[in-house]
Amino acid sequence: MVSAGEMLVLAGLVLAVAATRGFSQTNHLVTAPQTTQFLEIGSNFKATCMIINTTEVTADDLYWKLSKTTVSKELYTKLNESAISVTIPVTSGQSEWLLCRAEKGNSAYVSLNTGKFMYGVLLKKGYPPGKPENVSCVAVQEKTTISRIFRCDWATVGRQTSDVPTKYTLNVVVIHIRNYSVSTEGTHTQVEFVDTYPHFMNLEIWVEAHNMLGKIESEHITQDANSFVKTNPPSDIKVISEKYFPTSPLMNWTQPIDKSYGKLKYEIRFCTIGSPNWTYVPKGDIATDIQSFRLQSLQPYTEYITQVRSQLGHWSDWSGTTMKTAEDRPTSKPDVWRIIAEVDGKNERRVQFISKDPVFANGRIITFDIKIQEQKNDNLQWDTILVNGSESSDGQRVITVLKDMLLADLRPVRLCVTANNSVGTSPMASLFISAKGHEDPPVKGLKVWSAEGKLWLQWTPPNGPDLSEYVVEWVSGDQTDWQRENKNTRLTAIKGNLEGFVRYTVSVYSIYSGRIGKPASKEAYLKEGAPLEGPVVRLNDKPGRNEAELGWVEIPLHRQRGFIVNYTINYTGGGETHEITVPSNTISYTLKSLSSNTKYDTWINASTVRGSAQSSTHSFTTLKYAPGEVESIVVGVCLGFMFVVLMTMLLCLYKKDVIKENLWPRIPNPGESTIGNWSPDYPLKAETPKENCLSGISVLDVDVCDGKSMFEEDKACLPLKKDKYLSEEHSSGIGGSSCMSSPRQSVSDSDEGSDMADTTASTVQYSSVVASNGYKGQTPNPHPQQAVFSRSESTQPLLDSEENPDMMIQESSRQSQHFKQENPAEIHLLEMDQQQQQQEEGVESLDFCPLDEESEQTKSSEGQSAASSYMSQREGYRPQ
Amino acid sequence: MAFDSSRTVAASRNQQCGDSVQKSLKLSRLLQKESVDLIKTYKASQGEMSELFCKVSVNNVPDPNISGLEPSEKIASIYTHLQEFFPHFEWVYKQQTDLQLPTSPLLSDLRRFTAGSRNLAYLIKPFYQSLFPNVPLPEGGPTTLPPPQNVFQQKVYGCVVLKTFKELLSNVSRELRSLKSQVCRRRTHTNTLF
């Protein structure tokens, strides 16, 4: 069913189409409404679409699209064959297009002219405006008059969208005279009155909020124009403190605007400097249009901030000044305390009496009068202590040292103190110090902790009688301060200015009718932090091979900034890092299981509950050997060596016969042989040759000839000798039967004399050959020599050569001649001698060897040896 | 009930009467104070012999005296006298605009003072109409502005106008004080009688 309203819409559409004939010629669809629509979110919107100037499509071909979404056909209403309507809910706040479109698949016209079969309406969504609230207006003072600028503020209510913004219009009506109106999109604006501010005129003020969805007005305010005026604060404020009225200073000011603008109300307040709490003078006590006021109940000699403000319409800002009330007599006792220090070696205490100014000093304390009584009835004179007059800048009361004195341990005293300012004297305070050891009991269960930036204390009261009050004392270094608490106090906070990271010793003294009891003490920090530095690390002793003892110095108290809870020892060496935590009361630690000959770096972290600080790194190197280890090795080796030597010696002693048998075989004594009897008529002792060159063991031996004799005699001596040796020499036969097989004249070479034979018992004289003819230049023995042939019957080889190398050389020289005879036994002996001589003397023995022998030696040795032998030989002729 | 109702209405009217008179009185005092300041400013801005200007008498300046015996006549006289001065203020302002720099405080003070005086007249009118609703308030006769003047005459004329208006304000304040006690009390009394 099509309603009457829808019919009207259709009629309107037809008229609209007729009016827009030109448009209809190009478009076959049209909607109602046609223009941009502002819709309230949450409402429903209805639109109608109609086909015009075509029969290509019908209402059944029409459909609606909202943005990119096709609207469900359930929301359509077919009005007739050429028109449909749709009703959609307005939900989101985004603006969007609602399009009416036509679609007919079998129509080429429709497909080719889609633009003509589409029509849309832009939907902008929002909320109706909210009613402005809290409208307030003000006109401020400008010089001596009120400004014509009239500013108003208000608060918005409800929501807005960017598509439907709300504007506000401020309306100000000067009743019966003029209206002012200003619009804005914000929440404040101003109007400017023409020529003057409308004093004493009634103003009607309201704010109208309006947008495309409606408008609404705020409540109308109708008030006298002066009720919107905000004057300047009062000026030239002065507070006069009079000597005889120290608690009632007089306050004066100049009113900000002329009285003709209206009666001004005032408000007055004051507080002490630093106090956050203001004291307000009751409004009923302040008359209007005044310019002075006498304050009451202020503290004498106290700095105050006094302020005043005025009101014509709105209250002005505050203006004020600072002042100090006049002095008055002190009205409370001075706060007396004492510091006691033990004196070493004496039964005395060093007592320092100190005092703070009275709480109500009411002026600057100039002097303290003190009296120290040892007995109750002492009637001593008062001593006057001058005060230097300095005042604390941090609001704390100044502590004055009243007296220093030595007090015997068993001597109690009573101190009486009064404080004086320029006006009068305070009530008397007293302090009683008991004899040492006679103090009353302390409080019990004292607890100290930090919270809310304060140090809190809690304790249980003692059982002593006459408890009158408590004194809470806190000491840091040489700074002492205290406060008093009444006897019912169980929990309190220290009111002094405590510093963070500083260790305080907090004590609670119970006071018994003026007598000071024993204290209960605890150490505490207001605030803890990490230490500022680590401990100083060192080695207590030289490092060992596998251990080292670390020691460290405790961090200075002012650098600890908290209680040290533990130390962490770190050491690294050989690529490994170790960590050991030890309690806070430890100041040394021995590192064990270290590697020898290794460099270690060690450092210590000192920790509080808030952090830790690291010491500087200390390095050390462990030893390669433990102390005494080297000595032990040396001693062991020595002992072993000595043992071996001792054992060897013992072995030698026990086995000396065997060793002697092996090393020194038993040689038959030639003297005991039968040779002595073999030629009894021939002297055993050979005749000593006269010539030096022939002196020696053997006449054949030229080796022993010194160079000098050789040069002196004849350089051809050698060939001659050789000739002689070849022709005349009679070599001795050595050995047994082989020698005997070719008998020859032989002289034993023991002709050197019997000395040798005598002196060298071990020398074995094998034979003695005496030539028949002498050597060259040698005078033959004029006595016919008998051929002497002596033979040893010993079969022992030339063992004496080992004992007497000289002899061996001679022997070798002599025996070298024997090679001519090619006696095998001699050759054998010679070879042995040569080998031994070569080992001991090198080529020296070869220097004088015969050619044949040389050739043989050349065979056994290298040619080089022969050459060197030659050179040596030649040199051998030189004087040596 | 009727008695109580009329009493309430009477009290309300009495309150309105008192408020209107009080506001008018306050404004007249404020204008009085401002007129003193304005005359000082005027003299200071006229150069030499400014004191002399204000001692010269000038014709064609409205009479500052309030006339009439009845309150309605007095109030009407206040209103008409105020109205008579406004053209003279405009004339003085125009003359001083030619004589002063645009930034001269005298010009702004003149504008503010004139506007304040108009406001006083606006306050008197509804007050009169509320008191005497059946008696029309005369708007005042045509005032005669002075003929073209030289500079000296202009300066003298301005000062005389301000001084005369100050005198008028003084008279207005005095009359309003008396009217406040006469009119508002009497009407209250009259109403309660009904």
UniProtKB/TrEMBL annotation, chain A:
One of its GO terms (cellular component) is plasma membrane. Residues 1-19 form the signal peptide. Residues 233-328, 531-625 form the Fibronectin type-III domain. Gene3D superfamilies: Immunoglobulins. Its main location: membrane. It is found in: Membrane. SUPFAM superfamilies: Fibronectin type III (SSF49265), Immunoglobulin (SSF48726). One of its GO terms (molecular function) is cytokine receptor activity. The keyword Membrane applies. The keyword Transferase does not apply. Coiled coil: none annotated. Keywords: Disulfide bond, Glycoprotein, Immunoglobulin domain, Membrane, Receptor, Repeat, Signal, Transmembrane, Transmembrane helix. It comes from the Eukaryota. The chain crosses the membrane at residues 633-654. Belongs to the type I cytokine receptor family. Type 2 subfamily. PANTHER family: INTERLEUKIN-27 RECEPTOR SUBUNIT ALPHA. This is Interleukin-6 receptor subunit beta isoform X1.
Automatic annotation (TrEMBL), chain B:
InterPro entries: 4_helix_cytokine-like_core, Ciliary_neurotrophic_fac_CNTF. Its main location: cytoplasm. Signal peptide: none annotated. Keywords: Cytoplasm, Developmental protein, Differentiation, Growth factor, Neurogenesis. It is found in: Cytoplasm. It comes from the Eukaryota. Gene3D superfamilies: 1.20.1250.10. GO terms for cellular component: cytoplasm. One of its GO terms (molecular function) is ciliary neurotrophic factor receptor binding. One of its GO terms (biological process) is nervous system development. CNTF is a survival factor for various neuronal cell types. Seems to prevent the degeneration of motor axons after axotomy. Belongs to the CNTF family. This is Ciliary neurotrophic factor. The lineage of its organism: Eukaryota, Metazoa, Chordata, Craniata, Vertebrata. The gene is m17.
